[in-house]
Structures are given as C-alpha cells and as structure tokens.
Amino acid sequence: MDKLSYNCIIVDDEPIAIRVIKNHLSEFKNMQLVGECANAIEAIEVLSKTKVDLIFLDIQMPQITGVEFLKNLNPAPKVIFTTAYRDYAIEAFELDVVDYLLKPISLVRFSKAINKFYQRVTENTQVSEKEDKSESANHIFLKADKKLHKVLFNEIIYFESFGDYLIVRTETGKITVKERISHIEEQLPRQQFIRVHRGYLVSVQKITALLPGLLELGKYKIPIGRSYKQNVEKLVR
How confident is the model at residue 39 (pLDDT cuts 50, 70, 90)? Predict the structure, then answer.
C-alpha cells in the first residue's frame, strides 16, 4: 500500500457492535482506530479534529441516522455501513459507500470489506496521479506520418473524430492520426479541453462565441451535441 496506516472511527450506539468491529480491526495493523462514537454528533466532533480515512457507520441511530449523517458530510471519508437492516442497501450504494455489512459481522466478511477499501484507495490514488500528470504537462505527442509530433495544448483548436481517426486542428494546420477521440480525451487536462459533441473535443481557451447549437472558435463553427449542451452552457456562463 502507498500509505502505511489509515485512520478510522466507529459510529454505533450499540457497545457490543463496537466491540466486534474493534476485535476485527485488531487483525489489520495498518488500520488505526482514532474514535468510538455513540452517535453522529460525537462523530462530527471527531471529524472536526482528526483526519479520518474510513468510517464504520451504523444506520439506525437516535436523532440522526447514518444515512442522514453521510448525506451531510462534505467532503466525506470512505464509509462502510454496519447495520442489522437490509432495507437501506440500495440507498447506501447510491451514496457510493465502500461496503454494506449486515450484523452479526464475521471476520471473513469484514476482511472483504477492508480489501474493498484498500482497492478504492488505490484506484483514487491512480486517478489523482494521472490528473496531476496531465494538468502539469503542456503538450501531447501524436503519431502521424510514421513519426511522433509534439503538439502544444495552447496551439490546439479542436479534435474532430472520423471513426478510428482524428483530425487535430491547430493554429498552424492539421494533423490526421489513427486514434479514437475517447482515448485522446483521457490524456488531456480537463480544465483546458471539453467534449461538446460525440465527434468533437475543443480547446476551452479557443472558444470565441456561443451560438444556437454551435460553438464558434475563431473562423470555425463546431456543433454542440444535445447531451453535451448543459455542460457547454455552464462553461461559458
């Protein structure tokens, strides 16, 4: 793991449930229990003072339920629900929790939940590293005519897709590459480029005007796809 230890808290109004989770946690040396809370109010106090990576959260608690508590956390640590009730499973996963454990919780099932947490942390780290890398770069290499062309982001006007091929329109001309637009989109900094149509990806700084159903990029007019319209309008407001 990239991190030696993870801080976690237990939020549950049942002392027996807390004891079971504590016993299971003792098997995982990199999980550090930094708080035991009987309700959401106590948990809020702990979160205000301590960096927490994972919450073991009961659902049925007095005053504020676990679901209500999680909905009001922003940003929220990773959460594993621990409950005696099946009824909230769908709502829980809509809140993007790591796992949903039914009491009584066995060590085997608990271990699976911890492994899901490790996997989620690893995935988030990889995404962050990828985004940091793309945001710090100022160019992309594109293969065409049997050579790699170094193209600066600030010279790109737009990408236009033709199946497995792309036309890359720049300030000095165009390059045709064998590449899918979705793959190129993954390599570009999100703050500098926006998908405006299934076949077009444009440079935000090159946008000069918004027309009905079209974006103007200097002398070029690019269609706006219906499913992309809302994102484009938010960008240019």
Answer: very high
